[in-house]
Design a protein that fits this description.
There is one protein chain. By secondary structure, the chain is of the alpha+beta class. The protein is built from 3 helices and 3 strands. It has helices spanning 30-43, 54-61, 65-77, and strands at residues 4-7, 10-17, 20-27. A hairpin with a 2-residue loop joins strand 2 and strand 3. The protein is globular, with a radius of gyration of 12 Å.
């Protein structure tokens, strides 16, 4: 699975954009990390590992990249149950 790895007993997710590695966050499960990666991949115009629903794609397409990063990091830091939209 691209962009998802286990380190220090936590799942971390990253994506490479314009030759820069961007850390999306550290979460509790592999599935949650994969979901954040897939959303980021879609935002970058790449094919996600798993299919996003039409509703998820519609919601993500309304966001800028910076808004997406802010929303994602806020959800991870607040430990909210935001997974795929």
């Amino acid at each position: 699975m691209r962009g998802v790895y286990y380190k220090n007993m936590k799942w971390q997710t990253t994506i490479k954009v314009d030759k820069k590695q961007i850390h999306l966050g550290t979460v509790g499960s592999q599935q949650e990390a994969a979901c954040f990666y897939d959303m980021a991949a879609f935002m970058c115009g790449r094919e996600p590992d798993f299919e996003l629903t039409a509703m998820e794609k519609d919601e993500l397409s309304k966001l800028s990249w910076d808004d997406f990063l802010t929303m994602t990091r806020s959800a991870i830091n607040s430990k909210s149950n935001l997974t795929c939209l």
